Amino acid sequence: MSKTIIITGTSSGIGFALAEYFGKKGHKVYGLSRKNVESPHFKTVPTDITDQAQVKNAIVEILNTENRIDVLINNAGMGMVGPVEDATQDEILKLFNLNLVGSVQMMSGVLPKMRDQKSGQIINISSIGSEMGLPFRGFYSASKSALDKVTEAVRYEVSPWNIQVCTLHLGDIKTNIADHRVKSEVSEPYKKVFDKVYSLMNAHVDQGTEPVDVARYIETLLKKNNWKAHYYFGKFGQKIGVPLKWLLPQNFYENLMKKYNKLD
């Protein structure tokens, strides 16, 4: 059965792969991104999701053609790297404005229609890194963790209308995310260790899971009747970090993380 699916951040990377995949499957896919993308498989509605007026206009445009909204995949986001000490206020606000506020505005945009039709599915794309403070990615971890908690709250609030909401925590996916990260100026005390961690960070992305595998996993989620609040997708070595954080003594876990990030 064909669904109307809205996906944010479809100009490249995971978002583009998702839009292409579901469009080829016969779904009516609308991609929201600031950059217009020509594709035979989905329609781009140029939108800056941090602009509330643009979000509202995009939803109106979609509903002028479609009589329902079945799925929202909040994929748009950005990374941020650098020492916590060196981050500027503008960098932090830019990150949270997209990773948190933009996603919230998208949910607010589709929920009235989903309530009216008494059904809907919303997937907020987060990160395995939201479950722990990653070295030199503290604000990225924090922005995604904030989205996780908002998602948990929304699940309660919309449950009377048969609307399902979940967080999908991704490990490293092979995309061009490094080209779009906010990168703080790194002060001298941190430079040597940051350079080592940053090189490792990019290597993990280069060795990451293919974006189309994320699409296949989401396809299985959309077929489920009852969602959990959190799902985790990625390579075993990254996913295992989540339960280990819950189970291991804090100091022991931190030492493992230092070794994994070459900080020992």
List key phrases describing it.
264 residues, alpha/beta, 9 helices, 16% strand, oxidoreductase, SDR_fam, EC 1.1.1.163, Cyclopentanol dehydrogenase, cyclopentanol dehydrogenase activity
Question: Could you give a short description of this structure?
Answer:
Belongs to the short-chain dehydrogenases/reductases (SDR) family. The protein is α/β, with parallel strands linked by helices.
Total count of helical runs of at least 4 residues: 9
The best one-word shape is globular
Oligomer: single chain
**What does the main sheet amount to?**
7 strands, parallel
Assign the CATH topology: Rossmann fold
Name the helix and strand elements from N-terminus to C-terminus, one letter apiece.
Answer: EHEEHEEHEHEEHHEHHH
GO molecular function: cyclopentanol dehydrogenase activity
EC number: 1.1.1.163
Protein name: Cyclopentanol dehydrogenase
Family: Belongs to the short-chain dehydrogenases/reductases (SDR) family.
Written description of the protein model:
With 264 residues, this protein is α/β, with parallel strands linked by helices. The protein has a single domain, classed as NAD(P)-binding Rossmann-like Domain (Rossmann fold), CATH 3.40.50. It has nine helices and nine strands. The protein has helices at residues 13-24, 52-65, 89-117, 138-158, 188-206, 211-222, 236-239, 241-247, 250-260, and strands at residues 4-8, 28-33, 43-46, 71-74, 80-81, 120-127, 163-170, 182-183, 230-233. Strand 1 (4-8), helix 1 and strand 2 form a beta-alpha-beta unit. It starts with a strand and ends with a helix. The model has no long low-confidence stretch (mean pLDDT 94).
